[in-house]
Fold this protein.
Amino acid sequence: MDFKETLIDKKEVFRGDFLVVEKLKVRLPDGNQGNRDVVRHPGAVALLAFLDSETILLVEQFRMALNKTLLEIPAGKLEKGENPVECAHRELEEETGYKARKMEYLGTIATGAGFTDEKIHIYKASELFQGIKGGDDDEFIEVVPYKLQDVRVLIKEGKIIDAKTISSMMYL
């Protein structure tokens, strides 16, 4: 069966600082019409930043949407026209204060294909050396090293619930 839906009409219903919400009217595979709400996102990168072969950097930060502090891998959104690998280098230094001599692309995940076009490109950063921690004025982050085995335990215990962090571990 061909599952493809065909766009009939599109209306922008919200434009924020970097997100756009659209209301779509689509033709369904059976010929009927349906509606879709879609959040347009510029995309992002996330990093498995290795201090050594068994230790990665995680960041703690408050996430207002969940009203909770999460433990997750460093990540950040792509700027307009920015190459994902350049973004990975920039975000690594901004969020952790480290730079990487090696940056290896691992894969891309779709974060919520039922409602957003956001994709996160995952990289492995290694051979780290000290840079300058920066970040956005509204970003408060604590960097914490964790052993990979401990990260796996925290995921299984439900103490790490961040999807990009959990997904990234599948690449190892």
Summary: Residues 121 and 168 are 10 Å apart (CA to CA). The chain has a mean pLDDT of 96. The chain has two domains: 6-40, 44-171. DSSP finds three helices and ten strands in the chain.
